[in-house]
What does this fold into?
Amino acid sequence: MKFLFDLFPIILFFIAYKLGTSFPTQAAALASSYLGVFVADGAVPADQAPILLATAIAIVASLAQVGWLIARGRKVDAMLWLSVAVIIVFGGATIWLHDETFIKWKPTILYALFAVILVAGRLFWRRNFIQSLLGQQIDLPAPVWEKLMWTWVAFFTVVGVLNLWVAFNFPTDTWVNFKLFGLMGLTLVFTLGVGFWLSRHIKEAPDA
It folds into this structure.
């Protein structure tokens, strides 16, 4: 369930973009009506309407996630706050300048920040943030925690670069598909692979 909750803005982004490209006239009208005030020159180019609408909906959905958690008295984790901040900045730039370049950079910037936080935590604070996050749930030898952290750093780096390669070497429609299915699929496969690898290293609880 949490996996779907985390994907909520991305799924809505995908749906909004596909509907916008399928109904360009309606998308242009909606974008002009609701986003015109947020565009630098007040005019929304018709060819940019789908991506601008999708971006606006993703921003609203991300804010709604935070609002829902706060309303239910639940903790908003740091990764979600960071994700919301990045989409507001880069999504806002996309709408203001009606330039899809910024929203295409958003996943890479987010992955890069995750990687930098992990590396900085290890080098400057001598902390393994992956262990801090999962240490109460699983018990692993210290070398395994270290390998796990650097494995995630490598994954974030690879998918960040891959996102830019797809974003700027293929049509926007291809990138939108990759953003949902490609990045989601890679993350799922990687997580399952890591889980299988960790299962061989989890310390057995001593018999009572």
About this structure: The longest helix spans residues 142-169. The chain has two domains: 1-99, 104-208.
